[in-house]
Write a sequence for this structure.
């Protein structure tokens, strides 16, 4: 009778080990499917598409005003607007004003804040940040959604703008 | 007695595995639902954005922004009843972001010192889908076209 009990115990342990293995395999699969650091957002991508045409308050010649696409290029060359302000400064203000009109950022809202990144790279070289302070409401947590967009630079190379909306 | 014990164990193991399976499938299904909602949302946004490609809305005065919505044209269409039933929308509104005239609806008297143009409004509570677009309009100060980021709000049967 005692031996029979032992056999049943061994059977139970074998089953538990099997179940534990199945769980570990499932856990492994789920962890591998862990979402990327930044979830791509169609909304943010649309915003960046619309943003590139936006007219800024910066003019180089006193007649025509730069759009955001061109301002990013001029900012990369650290140029000044006709009114004496840096192109980068005007660009930063434009991005800040538009982003804060597009979404409602506060701790009670779904969207808590945002971060911009603007980098310039030529060929395979390491990207460098553009020479201006990027508008950031507050550092993002782990859950962000966003998009990026490439602009061809006047001097060759590519300028990439990244906008991330913080959800926590 | 031994057969009873074995049968009991078998049933217990089967129940256990079916519970694990149910948990797995419920998680998978919830992920699938989230993805379906996300795709639906993306499709609706794209449909709304396609409005900027409608010839009646498209900005053609200058060749540098083919994907822009012509705000001046919208203003011309605003008071025409022809457009109320031309598209299958219950509600259609285009607004400029970061306007100096927040929440001011455009009329013949205040244009262009306004923020939004409501083209179609068939009344009732509407849940709108939105999409970001570029809007273009003549700016007297610039003496050229000004381009702003705008947002289209639309509601209709085809938008989900």
């Amino acid at each position: 009778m005692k031996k029979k009990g032992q056999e049943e115990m061994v059977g139970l342990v074998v089953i538990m080990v099997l179940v534990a293995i199945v769980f570990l395999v499932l856990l492994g699969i789920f962890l591998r499917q862990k979402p990327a650091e930044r979830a791509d957002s169609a909304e943010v991508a649309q915003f960046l598409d619309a943003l590139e045409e936006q007219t800024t308050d910066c003019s180089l010649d006193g007649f025509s005003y730069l759009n955001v696409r061109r301002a990013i290029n001029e900012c990369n060359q650290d140029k000044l607007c006709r009114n004496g302000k840096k192109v980068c400064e005007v660009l930063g203000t434009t991005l800040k004003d538009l982003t804060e009109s597009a979404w409602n950022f506060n701790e009670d809202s779904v969207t808590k804040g945002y971060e911009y990144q603007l980098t310039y790279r030529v060929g395979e070289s390491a990207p460098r940040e553009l020479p201006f302070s990027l508008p950031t409401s507050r550092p993002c947590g782990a859950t962000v959604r966003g998009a990026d967009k490439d602009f061809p630079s006047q001097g060759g190379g590519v300028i990439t703008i990244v906008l991330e909306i913080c959800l926590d | 007695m031994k057969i009873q014990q074995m049968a009991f164990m078998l049933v217990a193991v089967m129940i256990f595995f079916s519970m694990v399976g149910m948990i797995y499938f419920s998680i998978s299904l919830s992920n699938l639902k989230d993805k379906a909602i996300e795709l639906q949302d993306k499709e609706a946004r794209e449909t709304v954005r396609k409005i900027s490609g409608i010839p009646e809305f498209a900005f053609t005065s200058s060749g540098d922004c083919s994907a822009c919505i012509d705000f001046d044209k919208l203003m011309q269409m605003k008071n025409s009843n022809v457009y109320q039933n031309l598209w299958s929308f219950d509600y259609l509104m285009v607004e400029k972001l970061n306007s100096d005239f927040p929440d001011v609806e455009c009329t013949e008297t205040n244009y262009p010192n306004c923020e939004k143009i409501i083209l179609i409004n068939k009344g009732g509570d509407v849940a709108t889908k939105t999409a970001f677009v570029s809007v273009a309009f003549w700016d007297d100060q610039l003496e050229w076209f000004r381009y702003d980021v705008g947002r289209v709000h639309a509601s209709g049967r085809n938008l989900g």
The helical segments of chain B are 2-49, 71-78. The interface with chain A takes residues 2, 5, 9, 13, 16-17, 20, 24, 27, 41-42, 45-46, 49, 65, 67-68, 97-98, 131-134, 136, 142, 144, 146-151 of chain B (CB under 8 Å). Chain B has a mean pLDDT of 85. The two ends of chain B are 61 Å apart (CA to CA).
